[in-house]
Amino acid sequence: MTTLIINIKELLQVRESNILKVSGPEMALLPTIKNAYLVIKDTLIAEFGPMKNVPQKTFDKTIDATGKIILPTWCDSHTHIVYAGNREQEFVDRINGLSYEEIANRGGGILNSAQKLNQTTEDELYDQSKERLEEVMRLGTGAVEIKSGYGLTLDGELKMLRVIKKLAQQYPIAIKATFLGAHAFPLAYKENRQGYLALLIHDILPQIAKEDLAQYVDVFCETGYFTVAETEQIMEAGIRFGLKPKIHVNQFNSIGGIQSGIKYDALSVDHLEVMTTEDIEALKNTNTMPVALPSCSYFLSIPYTPARQMIAAGLPLALATDFNPGSTPSGNMNFVVATACIKMKMTPEEAINAATINGAYAMNLSDSHGSITIGKKANLILTKPLSSYYQIPYAFGSNLIDCVFIEGKKIPI
Ligand code: NIG
Ligand code: FE
């Protein structure tokens, strides 16, 4: 099956296959082709270039994209899409003055979601989660990482990871799974922290490895959650089972989680709302991708990741949603890109790089996703007619997507 798309106003994020991520000043550069064509062959990008070189042969289908822009689909490298129910009541409690921390200390927060999840069957959890996955695909996401972490029991964690695996089998979008058993201490283990770590390390991890249920291991390294030493214990165990770390750090406090993520060669360190100069320094010349989650900052009214300082220090930066019921009930990467521009003062070019090629890096998907490159997946956003790509962050509340292709096929909008 071949599809020719012609008269594309601008084709964004055109890269050679050897570019895996962009850092520092390179983030301001977004290579594009104006007045372009693109050929999809089956599931892949087969060819593209300026319209003057459009191939003179027949195609199964031709699409006229006059006035429209094409970019690679968003790569959302940090989500918790699989969850049960919602936390709308906590949202209202926060409006009425309680803090995220106070809610968690009362047994709400992650433990509230865990209770709901453990009372939900695997089929019901799948049905609730697939609605959210379909929604983010319609919003232009073509690759996503999904974490466990609302089970906090052997059965609950495995249930979540099996749901993620089933979603990956049923949907064409690329899905990576992360084991986040170390998301919070269940009440039963409040006084027996090593007991909970032993459950994660000796009971749950071997089963995950046996069923091949995850590629990454995550820990919520934060005051009141997991200490740096506990984080290292989990990362070490995960690595023994073949899982690379991708960790939650520096959301509320800088306690050394970044340095320890780097020590264990974490693929990414995520959140980073609170960053010291030492934290920024530590990330220089490492393989670890810093990931910012601006919709979480927006929803919780907490600081935004200091993108300008990090980019000025020569670092790369990726953007992701953090879609979850407590701190970010939104999986809209278009909003993430707009918020990064509006609140973090990233330029449109920087934000698009962060949400595509650098997001792909943070999921080990650089070979197949994140740019317009021959041989990569034909995962494309075709916009409505736009004056320029600046409109994507500028018109932050509008739906600018005409259609989304995943593996070469238009997904139902
Ligand atoms: O990434 N910070 C830790 N975990 C999630 C939120 C969890 C929740 O409140 O349910 C996050 O923001
Ligand atoms: Fe998260």
Automatic annotation (TrEMBL):
It is found in: Cytoplasm. GO terms for cellular component: cytoplasm. Its cofactor is Zn(2+); Fe(3+). It catalyses: 4-imidazolone-5-propanoate + H2O = N-formimidoyl-L-glutamate. Keywords: Cytoplasm, Histidine metabolism, Hydrolase, Iron, Metal-binding, Zinc. Pathway: Amino-acid degradation; L-histidine degradation into L-glutamate; N-formimidoyl-L-glutamate from L-histidine: step 3/3. 4-imidazolone-5-propanoate binds at residues 87, 150, 183, 251, 327. Its EC number is 3.5.2.7. One of its GO terms (molecular function) is imidazolonepropionase activity. Fe(3+) binds at residues 78, 80, 248, 322. InterPro entries: Amidohydro-rel, HutI, Metal-dep_hydrolase_composite, Metal_Hydrolase. N-formimidoyl-L-glutamate binds at residues 150, 324, 326. Binds 1 zinc or iron ion per subunit. Zn(2+) binds at residues 78, 80, 248, 322. Pfam families: Amidohydro_1. Its main location: cytoplasm. Residues 230-409 form the Amidohydrolase-related domain. One of its GO terms (biological process) is L-histidine catabolic process to glutamate and formamide. It is an enzyme of class 3 (hydrolase). Belongs to the metallo-dependent hydrolases superfamily. HutI family. PANTHER family: IMIDAZOLONEPROPIONASE, IMIDAZOLONEPROPIONASE-RELATED. Catalyzes the hydrolytic cleavage of the carbon-nitrogen bond in imidazolone-5-propanoate to yield N-formimidoyl-L-glutamate. It is the third step in the universal histidine degradation pathway. This is Imidazolonepropionase. The gene is hutI.
